[in-house]
TrEMBL record, chain A:
Protein name from the UniProt record: ABC transporter permease
Superkingdom of the organism of origin: Bacteria
Parts of the chain that traverse the membrane: 30-53, 287-313, 340-365, 394-417
Pfam family, one: MacB_PCD
Keyword Transmembrane assigned: yes
Compartmental location: Cell membrane
Main location per the UniProt record: membrane
Domain MacB-like periplasmic core: from-to ranges: 29-255
UniProtKB/TrEMBL annotation, chain B:
Lineage summary: Bacteria, Bacillati, Actinomycetota, Actinomycetes, Catenulisporales
Organism this protein belongs to: Catenulispora yoronensis
Pfam families: ABC_tran
Entry keyword set: ATP-binding, Nucleotide-binding, Transport
Keyword ATP-binding: yes
The protein's name in its UniProt record: ABC transporter ATP-binding protein
GO MF: ATP binding
ABC transporter domain: residues covered: 2-224
């Protein structure tokens, strides 16, 4: 009597029947699940690589601009020629904003902090050549959010609250080296001397400004594009959202508050990234997504064909159930249940294949390069090396699993429809 | 039990056109009757059995079952009639190969929505009635042809139907096993006051029946014997 079934009679009948069918057609079950799993695994790998590329870009940008949760609010100059026409040496590169703007923005929901600043440029002439020095006015009492938020002090110190009324400056490392300046030196801006108290460096050796001055000093020296003093006005506000998930909400609120302002967040900064990292991200985003979608569709179709084929091979069996009085809905439910179970197996197979593929890509992915402008207004750029690390989280795995089950159910729906429409007389077919 | 009046059933078969499988049949089957339906292949006897089994509606005429015309019932009602009142026995047994003998019998009770424990108790009792109590956990592939047909009979009778419709029930069995199955059917027919309708080619089967109907080209050519048990 070896081999007879000992399955637990306490299980619901439909579940016992379902398990029996899947085991009986083990090859078909495994092929269907493997097909779904392959498609789902590919979707997982593409999504994880895409997420990895996004995170790599964010990482580059965060180290450069301190972005992530940070937003920059400004208004472009109304007159393109304002800077060049100005007779003043230190001129704002953006339209002035009311002094209360930072306080207004900081009061918005989900804004952790906001501070005003100045983005200035000093043009100096040496013979026939003009050189441009980028000067930022920074609130010494609140350097974050702001251009110094992601900077590392390599010599001296950072600007502090006590510097608000002092004539001190912090220099970018590259500028200090080029100008042979160090801590304790004097740097001249718009004819005024400032003591260098610190040298800063971006982690990726790319800086946005050459000289950072206390905001009050910068406001005293600079002229707006309209030729008027800045007085207590600013031309940029740096805002930080309380979490990355609220960046978009904060961005929308600021746009609503200041319809004419330009609000630059991580997304806009990401567009400034070029190089093989950007190419990889674009390729994954455009081609990879389609490949993954096509693979999943094909996998669902193949699984569906297997399931439909399985029903075709069971016509007499299902017809017998109809002859026994099983309602069409019960038979369809049985078929759908079987295909959903195949989908679950496909989800498990897909998760395993996906995680293995992600690990493989992480191990074999070449180092990519990201080329980033030195600051949003600059045409100069620098290139940094980035390792692409695919990123998979629980939501991705859950989503992929759901896709597999959905693929199985969709594939089974056709088979179930066919099974439900079977005539009970099929039971009398004498072909074994 | 059954009253068939001018029952006609046609099929549309592509290039062959329309085929009249059952053509104007009038037939009365009383409670407790044992009717054998004979005829050549294609004579319409299986279609007649399927009409009796609420699997088809006639194109014309009436198939009254306990006073209800099956032609007027909706699909769900026909399904309910099959599930509650009619048992089927098939030539090729039609057991689900992945389910045990007990589960195959239990499958017939699923439409009745009985509690699981009651289903299993009744299925086990039905298997015992056909002498297979010790084979309850066996798969069909582990049973002989005769044993499989016994499981098929247990499955047909477990819901205690009033009528048993059998399509060549001994067609796939050797002579000795055929006699065992016929003896079992006859015993169950007597003990349970069943109405038994058997489609057969086998003269030995029709000889045991109380009445014999002969089908020819969709028509009921002759009925031998008297109505009643």
């Amino acid at each position: 009597m070896a081999g007879h079934r000992r399955s637990g009679p306490r299980w619901p009948f439909g579940l016992r029947y379902l398990c029996s069918e899947l085991l009986r057609r083990a090859r078909r079950t495994l092929l269907s699940a493997a097909g779904l799993g392959l498609g789902v695994g590919l979707v997982m790998v593409v999504s994880a690589v895409s997420a990895g590329a996004d995170r790599a870009q964010s990482s580059v940008l965060r180290s450069l601009y301190g972005v992530g949760t940070q937003l920059t609010v400004d208004q472009p100059m109304r007159s393109v020629g304002a800077l060049q026409d100005s007779s003043h040496a230190l001129t704002g590169t953006l339209e002035p904003l009311p002094p209360s703007q930072a306080a207004t923005i900081s009061a918005l929901p989900h804004v952790a902090a906001a501070s005003g600043g100045l983005q200035l440029a000093e043009l100096t002439q040496s013979g026939a050549l003009f050189s441009r020095t980028r000067v930022d006015g920074v609130d010494p009492a609140q350097v974050a959010p702001g251009p110094l938020a992601a900077a590392d002090v390599v010599a001296g110190r950072m600007l502090a609250a006590a510097d608000t009324t002092r004539k001190v400056a912090v220099l970018d490392g590259g500028y200090a080296t080029a100008q042979h300046l160090s801590v304790g030196s004097t740097v001249t801006v718009a004819g005024a001397p400032f003591e260098v108290v610190g040298i800063v460096k971006r982690s990726q050796e790319i800086g946005s400004a050459d000289v950072y001055l206390p905001l009050a000093a910068a406001q005293t020296l600079a002229r707006a594009p309209d030729g008027r003093p800045f007085a207590d006005r600013v031309n940029v506000v740096y805002a930080a959202a309380d979490s990355a998930s609220h960046v978009a909400d904060v961005q929308r609120a600021i746009v609503h508050l200041l319809p004419t302002a330009t609000v630059t967040g991580a997304d806009a900064e990401a567009n400034a990234v070029t190089g093989s990292l950007r190419q990889a991200a674009d390729l994954i985003g455009e081609l990879g997504t389609w490949v993954a979608a096509a693979a999943l569709t094909m996998a669902s179709v193949v699984a569906g064909l297997f399931i439909v084929g399985g029903v075709a091979a069971r016509l007499r069996e299902l017809g017998t159930l109809k002859a026994l009085g099983w309602p069409a809905g019960r038979i369809a439910g049985q078929v759908i249940g079987e295909s959903a179970a195949i989908g679950v197996l496909g989800a498990i197979a897909g998760a395993i294949a996906g995680l293995a593929g992600i690990a493989l890509v992480g191990a074999l992915a070449p180092t990519l390069s990201a080329t980033v402008p030195q600051d949003p207004q600059s045409i100069q750029s620098s290139t940094v090396a980035v390792h692409l690390a695919p990123h998979a989280d629980a939501a991705l795995i859950a989503g992929a699993a759901l896709l597999a089950v959905l693929g199985g159910v969709l594939g089974g729906a056709v088979a179930a429809w066919r099974a439900a429409r079977l005539q009970p007389a099929v039971a009398f077919t004498r072909i074994a | 039990m059954y009253t068939l009046s001018s029952v006609t059933k046609t099929y549309h078969r592509g290039r062959e056109g329309t085929v009249t499988a059952v053509d104007g049949v009038d037939l009365v089957i009383a409670d407790g009757d044992w009717l054998a339906i004979k005829g050549r292949t294609g004579s319409g006897k299986s279609t007649l059995l399927q009409l009796l089994g609420a699997m088809h509606r006639p194109d014309r005429g009436a198939v009254e079952f306990d006073g209800r015309d099956l032609a007027g019932l909706r699909e769900a009602e026909l399904t309910r009639v099959r599930g509650e009142a009619i048992g089927f026995v098939f030539q090729t047994f039609n057991l689900i190969p992945t389910l045990s003998a007990l589960e195959n019998v239990e499958a017939a009770l699923v439409p009745l929505r009985l509690p699981g424990a009651e289903r299993q108790t009744r299925a086990a009792a039905a298997l015992a009635d056909v002498g297979l109590a010790d084979r309850a956990r066996h798969l069909p592939s582990e049973l002989s042809g005769g044993q499989q047909q016994r499981v098929g009979i247990a499955r047909a009778l477990v819901k205690q139907p009033r009528v048993l419709l059998a399509d060549e029930p001994t067609g796939n069995l050797d002579t000795a096993t055929r006699d065992e199955i016929l003896a079992l059917l006859e015993t169950l027919w007597r003990e349970r006051d069943l109405t038994l309708v058997v489609v057969t080619h086998d003269a030995d089967v029709s000889e045991r029946a109380r009445r014999v109907a002969v089908m020819d080209a969709g028509r009921l050519a002759v009925v031998v014997g008297s109505e009643g048990n």
